[in-house]
Amino acid sequence: MTATDLFPLADDSHVPFAAEPSTVERGVIPGGDRARLELRMWRPTSTSVGVHIAGELDMSTAPRLRELLASRLSSTVETMVLDLSELSFLGVAGLELLSQTHQRAAESAVSVRLVDGPVGVARALHAAGMSAMFPTYPTIVAASADLTGSPRENR
């Protein structure tokens, strides 16, 4: 069995497997870590920020999110909404980052809210004893319903 047998394209044609096993780092997906984690930010009000987190949050992708959250926590934000609805994997490094974010937010008097993620993400939070750490909402609309500050216009 060859790599082309294992990875057929949708139209049933095959592309030769280009990389030799010795040249591919274990655990790295072609396209790099940026392809595995998508971060989008929005400002629903003048005193709140939302961060949509999609993909995999693990030890190789957590530093990107850590940098973004640190800059938001050091600004004039009163509420941060973390949307986990499209998070497909939450590893130990991601759990540690959420715990650190909770601690830093408390020190900065910032409220952090979570938008529910898939069942696996909820289970990881529960297993780590973190399910009660954050107020959790079923949707972005519910998490943003009572935010304070002036509404921001979409541009």
TrEMBL record:
PROSITE patterns, alphabetized: STAS
Transmembrane segments: none
Gene3D superfamilies cross-referenced by the UniProt entry: STAS domain
Molecular function (Gene Ontology), one example: anti-sigma factor antagonist activity
InterPro entries reported for this sequence: Anti-sigma_ant (IPR003658), STAS_dom (IPR002645), STAS_dom_sf (IPR036513)
Domain called STAS: residue spans: 51-147
A Pfam family per the record: STAS
Family the UniProt entry places it in: Belongs to the anti-sigma-factor antagonist family.
Designated name of the protein: Anti-sigma factor antagonist
Originating organism: Actinopolyspora xinjiangensis
